[in-house]
Every structure is written in structure tokens, then in C-alpha cells.
């Protein structure tokens, strides 16, 4: 609560009262931010915004008190540290005072002018107190101009003193080496510097006017121009004015000719022509800039000058009927100069403005002479000749030295060593081909197929490799863009035509069904269903043992059993021939292992125990023929007759 003294009474206990209407008692901030930095400040009011009845100091007074160095009463005062010494060449580096001035030069041997006003610029370099005098170059003045007095320390008097910047001011005369310069004005930096040093500058003066220069600017022509052309006037009027044309010389009609660009310069001062060559980077040409040096070019020669030896002698006006002029050059026209025809396709802005003002020509257009790319020729492959793969044959059309076609490396890495095996029979009208069995292997990494015929004794066929690794095209597909057989085309009962031979798929590995089920989205469902149906009915339907003590009643069943037995014997012979020379043909240990598990000597073991023994002896159960034998030896659910299996692995 805030207490207030009664008006007119001293601030004593008992003479104050509390303001009951006051409810806010904020404290004033003592911190603030200035230019992004925190700084302290003295509060102007007290608690609850009550005025402070004390003598307050300003921020400047507070800063002065904070930075005030205390003085000692009983000791000697300490010396204030000297400021850092900065040499003049560092403090005044690149700082120059500039004064505009002039001096009068007497002209005693002229009846047109008595004196001449020459304007100069005086530079004073603060770093070493040196001075220089420069005279601006005036065009066609006839006077050598530029550096009038080189940079040096200029003497002021005979005692050896030199001029200092304190001696310079506006509106004064400066004597240097016998010449009197009148300083007229200075630049803003010089004015600020001198005023900062306490020098009061005189008011600026106007630059003196040269009477002869003014007379030349406004000549009074009291005579008539002669009829013949004034070449000197042409030189003074068109000096350093050049017409520039961009041209092209097309020499493609000749042997080893080409199209090259040039720049034609026409000098208006003396009607001369120059042709310069435009070089490009890495163009392979010698860097000669000028094709035709600056000279007057004859346009039409006289009749008696056709055999003039121009190679060794210069052409004079007596031999030329007409010379090249500015009217002979225009954008869009061809100009023949010394046996070469140049086509002008563009010019610069000054040339365009000159032709519009001088001759009234319309604005020249810009002609596009860039080389257009030749039309793209579509590459068409020749018809396929039937040798090798189409990809290999097509490489001979792409390069002189054929390269190996690109392969799908990712597919080769993912599907490496993945092979789908099928059992197939040959469909042929020849009776000897009946009963021949083939193993078709499909390599997923390269989409190639191999066909192998297991050798069978006394069959009349040698067996072995029937078809090497290659791609098989579907019948009726286009020769140039064939469609090849894939895993989705190999289903049970499918007819595969291989180069005129027809094969019917009879069986497959269980790995084929597992692979197709894992990639069911990539292959037809009909193929997967056909393999599932085949494997579901393969086990119990292959060799179904008759009930014990029950004989076959019908002749058809006997024929079927005989056929199954013959097929079993043929399959066992194929396995023995295939595994000939391997370590698997050891009957004793494998038979003993099965007999240990078959304690009741029934000739059957469980499926899990059977495959456990096969895994122990590293038997190739994934092989197509062995897998087919296991299915033929399977009876019922989960029971396998191991006698025939062991007999197939025996010697």
C-alpha cells in the first residue's frame, strides 16, 4: 500500500494516509534494448508509477561517473596510456585531395589567339605529402597532354620548404616551377577533409573559358563550300566511326570447303574496308585475325585493266571505274570482294542507325544463318537371319565392333542357381520314340532352357544332352520380336514345341510348385493349380498296394500293376545310370539305417524319418528322378516303402 502525505504538512508519522482507490503497483523496468543489445536505464517513476522526489541524473551523467578515473590524494597520479601510433602511410592510404585548376599560356606567334587556357587537375597525396598535376586530354587539340607534372614533393620557396595541404584552398594561386595555377574548386572529399582540420574554405570559382575554343565551336561561315569533296572534312566528321557487318562465306560447293564467319569493317573516314576472321575455340586454324587488311577495294575495273598485275602493283584511280562505298553493304545482300562472295546477315546498332539517318533505309532484319541439325534418321534393324540370339545379332548394327548385350544383373544375382526341372515325353509319330523320357531344366537367371535325355540301356538311343542352354521361342511368334517360353507355360500336360519337336510335360520337382506359389502374382493361376492337383494325386495313385491276402480279380488291374512295376524298374535304372560313379551307391549303410527305424520289419518308415535319413547321408532328394521315385514309393499318408528306394541307390 502507498501512503501519501497530507498537503502542506511535513512527511512525519501520523501525517500520511493510504490511498484506498489504488489497486495497481507495477514496478518500473530498469532494462532496455538498444541496437539489439541490453542496457540499463534509470527509472523515471517509482512503485505504482509514483513520481520520485529526488534529484535524478541523466544517462550521460551516469556514464561519465562510471567512466571517470579516480584521482589519488596521497600518491602521484598515473600517466594516461598513450594512444596507439598509426603511421601516416596507413592512416592516409589511398586518400587524395583533388583540386580543379587552370593556367594561362601565352601564344605569341598567332594572330587568332593571344593566350590559351589550359585546364589541369592537381592531386595531393596525404600519405607522403606528394603532388601531381594532370591535364585532361582534349580531342584534336594538337597539344601533348596527360601527365603534366609527375608525382613528387613540390618546392614552395627557395628555402627548401614544400607545399603542405594547409597551403591549399579554393580561389588561390599556386606557383609551381614558374607556372601559376589558379585553384578553382575541389571535390567533396577534399572539402570535408579541410573543414575537419579547421581550414575555412573560400567560395568556389568558375572555370575560365578559352576564347579560341569557343570561337571554334561556333564558326561563322561566310563562304560557299567548293564543289569537289572535302576529304579533310570527311576525316574530321567520321573519324573513329566504323560500320560493322557480320557476314558468312559459304564454300561448301568446293572440295573440302566449309562455311566460315567474318566481320567486315567499313571505315567512314577514308572509305576503306577490312575483313577480319572470327575464330572459334578448338577450330584447328592458325590464329590469323585479318583476312584482308584495311584498304580501298575496287568494285568495277576498267576494260583495259583486266590484265593488270594486281598481285604485285597497287590499283590506282586510273584503273578503277568504281570503288566500294557504304551503299554497297546492306544486310541480306551478297558482296563479292577479291573473288570471294560474302553474305551479310547482321550488323551492329550504330550501323543500323547510320543507314536510317543517312540513306533512309528501313531497319535491317537479323537473318538466321545457323546450321540446322540434319533430320534424324530412324534406325531400323534388318530382318533376323536366324543365327544366335536377336540381341547378339542386333549389336552388329549398332557398332562396327559389336559389344556384349546388357544383361539384367539384378535378376541374375537374385535368381542365381535357381533351376526349375520338369519331366517330359516326346510326342512323335515314330514308334521308336515312344517311351523316351526327357528332363527339361529352366534357368530363372537367364530364361534359358536345357533338355537332357537320361540314357537307357538297350533302348537304341545314346541319351545325354539333347538341347544345350538356349531360349525357346513360342510357335507363331514374330521373328523380329519373338515371345519366349516362361515358367508360366510349363504346366502338367502342356505341349512345348522346341525347334519342330513337341514335348508334353509329365512331371515336375516340388521346388517348382514352391517357387510358383511364392511368386503367385507373376504367373498364371492355372499353372499353379495344375501342379497342385498333380502333386496331390501323385502319391497315393502311383503304386497302391493291394490288401494283404487279397488277389487281383480283374485283368485291367494286373496290367496296371505291371505297368507301374515296369515304370519303377525303368526309373531305378535311370537313377543308377545317372548316379553311376558317385558315393551315393552304397547299399549297406543306408539299408541298415532304414531297418533300425523299421523295428517291425514292415518295409515302411514314416515320411519325416525317411527324409531325416536322406539328410544324414546327403542324398539328392531334390533331383527330378529321385523325387519321382519317392512319390512312387509313397503308400498312404506319411509312409514310404524304402526297399525300392535303397535298391535304386545300390550298385
Automatic annotation (TrEMBL):
GO cellular component assignments: axonemal microtubule; axoneme; centrosome; mitotic spindle; spindle pole
Region annotation Disordered: where it falls in the sequence: 538-564
Annotated EF-hand domain residues: 585-620
GO molecular function: alpha-tubulin binding; calcium ion binding
Sequence ranges of Basic and acidic residues compositional bias: 552-564
Keywords: Cell projection, Cilium, Cytoplasm, Cytoskeleton, Flagellum, Repeat
Cellular compartments annotated: Cytoplasm, Cytoskeleton, Flagellum axoneme
Biased composition range(s): Polar residues: 538-547
GO biological processes: cerebral cortex cell migration; cilium-dependent cell motility; mitotic cytokinesis; mitotic spindle organization; regulation of cell division
Main location class: cytoplasm
Residue intervals of the DM10 domain: 93-198, 239-359, 416-520
PANTHER family: EF-HAND DOMAIN C-TERMINAL CONTAINING PROTEIN (PTHR12086), EF-HAND DOMAIN-CONTAINING PROTEIN 1 (PTHR12086:SF9)
Protein name: EF-hand domain containing 1
Native organism: Monodelphis domestica
